[in-house]
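Today's session is about reading a structure prediction critically. Students often jump straight to the picture, but the first step is always the sequence itself: look for stretches that repeat, for charged clusters, for runs of hydrophobic residues. Only then move on to the predicted structure, which in these notes is written as discrete structure tokens rather than atom positions. Here is the chain we will use throughout the hour.
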Amino acid sequence: MVNWLSHIIEYLTINAIGLQVLFTILIFFATAIYVIFNSLMHKEMVKQRRREETPDISITFEQEPNVHTLFFIAIKNISTAEVFDLKFIKYPVLKLWTVGTTSDIGFIKEGIKYIGVNQLYKDHFLSLSEKENRNKILEFEIEFYNKDRKKYIKIFSLNTAMFNSIGVIQHTKFEDEIKKIRELLENFVNK
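Below is the predicted structure for this chain, in token form.
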């Protein structure tokens, strides 16, 4: 066994420089691969950080549960960043089912100074019982800022025809029939 060990030591002594060069080359390539891998990880981390710091807003319409022809507008911060100074640059001016128009809605008229993560603002916006609101394309343009005052602009477009489900159409036909009956009764009473 000693003889075998002495041969290995003798071989390593004779070829020490060659082995040292070989191991140096292996360490160089391992280090180069490690540096490339870390560089790629760093780039991905920077991209992820930017995504997390970029605010994003969604505008959706939610149907009123009890009245199928009425819809809420819902503005929500769907990012992990805070939103500042949201303003509606462009929005449709529609007659509200109560009084006034959509330009009278507080957060559309005045804007929203701050929207926290997952915060939601809602208000009545759209009534499909008004015939002029059916099959209409609604366009919104909003601007808002992140915490560093970087400006973002987002444009939304929505076709109200997608709400013309059978329930909405039947409900509006029912409302039309009631209006006709009311008019007939008023004419009858006034005579």
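Discussion point for the tutorial: Helices lie at 2-14, 16-53, 106-110, 166-190.
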